[in-house]
Amino acid sequence: MLIRYKKLFEKIAMGLLSFMPNEKDIKKLQQTIKQYESDENWHLFLWKEDDDIIGIIGVYRKDENVMEIHHISVNPSYRNQGIGKGMVKALKDMYPQSTLIPIKDIETFYNKCD
Fold first, then answer.
1. Burial class (CB in 10 A: 0-12, 13-18, 19+), 103
2. Dihedral pair phi/psi, residue 109, rounded to 5°
3. Is 7 in contact with 37 (CB distance < 8 Å)?
4. What CA–CA distance (Å, rounded) separates 91 from 14?
5. Which residues form the N-acetyltransferase domain (predicted)?
6. Domain membership of residue 42 as a residue range
7. What are phi and psi of 80, to 5 degrees?
8. Contact 100, 59 (CB under 8 A)
9. Whole-angstrom Cα distance, residue 5 to residue 44?
């Protein structure tokens, strides 16, 4: 289930984001989290199963009808179980009026989700 990011989940979110190739540096991670916390056009969601948060997906609302996926990551222990695809589907269901487009780094994975 997708849940909205809250400051309470900051360390978990940073841990999951650190699996992204461009988010290895701690200063970069802090900047990314701050952007999601402070800019109303950036939305971060966590994937929760049972009581565990095991995935993360982040989007930027370019305009009223377009959302750009910038981050998607799953805890390595839970990979290859369809969780990433589930997050994309849940996001599409959450924003049915919006077109989701991936940034270049995520495009290959995103194309496998359809």
1. middle
2. -65, -45
3. yes
4. 20
5. 3-114
6. 2-112
7. 65, 30
8. yes
9. 5
Q: What pLDDT was estimated at residue 22? A: 86
Q: Which helix (H) or strand (E) holds 26?
A: helix 26-38
Q: What CATH number should be reported for the domain holding residue 78?
A: 3.40.630.30
Rounded CA separation 59/80 (Å): 22
pLDDT mean by block of 10 residues, the chain; 114 residues: 95 95 90 96 96 96 94 95 95 94 93 82
Written as six digits, the tokens of 19 are: 């699996």
Q: Which stretch of DSSP H or E encloses residue 2?
A: strand 2-4
Instruction: Give, for 14, the enclosing helix (H) or strand (E).
Output: helix 10-17
In order, the DSSP letters of 33-93 are HHHHHH-TTEEEEEEEETTEEEEEEEEEEEETTEEEEEEEEE-GGGTTSSHHHHHHHHHHH
Domain count across the chain: 1
